[in-house]
Specification:
Layout lengths: L1 E2 L2 H11 L4 H23 L13 E2 H4 L1 H16 L8
Parallel strand pairs: 1-2
């Protein structure tokens, strides 16, 4: 699961996505509500429930692209043919 602190998410929306602050706050609130509803409906628990989480990454530390790259490398290492069936 990736996450970022609220301040970092707001900063990303304003600086990177060029949103005004009020619109960014509203969008973050709406996305969070939708994400929570989706998670509860299809998984049966809220995002952030640590009983169902193996890995947490604060995406504000690496940035969006580097976080995506890190996760890609992790998945490739975990699920390469050499490791299939191993835990």
């Amino acid at each position: 699961m990736t996450y970022a602190p609220y301040k970092e998410r707001l900063k990303n929306c304003v600086e990177r996505l060029k949103m005004d602050e009020r619109t960014a706050k509203e969008m973050i609130r709406n996305v969070d509500r939708a994400r929570d509803a989706y998670q509860v409906r299809y998984a049966g628990y809220l995002p952030g429930d640590f009983h169902h989480t193996d890995l947490l990454i604060n995406s504000s530390c690496l940035g969006v692209e580097a976080t995506a790259q890190y996760l890609t490398e992790l998945v490739l290492k975990k699920y390469s043919s050499h490791h299939i069936g191993e835990d």
